[in-house]
Structures are given as C-alpha cells and as structure tokens.
Amino acid sequence: METRLRYLPIADAIEGMVLGAPLVLSQHGINTFSLPVGHALTESNIRQMNVRHAEFVCIQIPDERTLEERDAEWAASETRLRYIFRSADLKNPVMSRLYETVLAFRRG
To answer: What are the tens digits of pLDDT across the range 79-96?
Structure first.
C-alpha cells in the first residue's frame, strides 16, 4: 500500500504511528533523543518527545487516493508553486535548488 507523509503536532501523535522521517532532538547542539524512520511510536517515545519539547513529528499514513486524485493534487500543487516562484530568477542556481527542493517536498 502506498503511504504519504504527514506532519503532526506532538499532541496529536498516538502510539503505533510510524515515523516517516528520522526524529532527532537536540539541546545546546547535542543530540539528546533520536528515532529512525519506520519506527512505530510508543507511549514512552511520545512522553520523551514531550519532555524534550519536540513540536512536530513526521508520520506515514496510508494513501487512499486514486492515481487520478494524486495526479490532480500534484498538478494543483505544481501550479501553486510556480505562482509562488513567479518572480524568482530560476536561472540562479540557489533559487533553482530551492524551487526543486520545495517541488520534491510537495511531491512526497
């Protein structure tokens, strides 16, 4: 089954949710807590994230959209992104990389 990523506030995270991206929390430049992508959250993990003041977590959710729905959402997202970057000089390497990064993020 296809999955998609969703960013949730820690308060909305529940036991059993699967991380869609690695979680790394640091304090004063030192990593204090980390969990790998694909890790199923436990109540203990969620408590530890709260204690360490985590704000958001990236989770995987089942993608129940049809291929047509995904393509339509992707097209709308790409149109919106082109509008946002309409005044940007995409020949500039830095701006071009930013555009491509945001485009890839929205595609995911």
So the answer is: 999 999 999 999 999 999
Element (H, E) at 2: none
**What pTM was estimated for this model as a whole?**
0.69
Residue 94's alpha-carbon distances to 26, 31, 71, 78, in angstroms, are: 28, 29, 28, 19
The answer to whether 32 touches 53, Cβ cutoff 8 Å, is no
Q: What is the pLDDT of residues 38-70, one digit of tens each?
A: 999 999 999 999 999 999 999 999 988 888 998
8-state DSSP, 11: G
Residues 6+ apart with CB under 8 A from 1: 62, 63
Element (H, E) at 45: helix 43-51
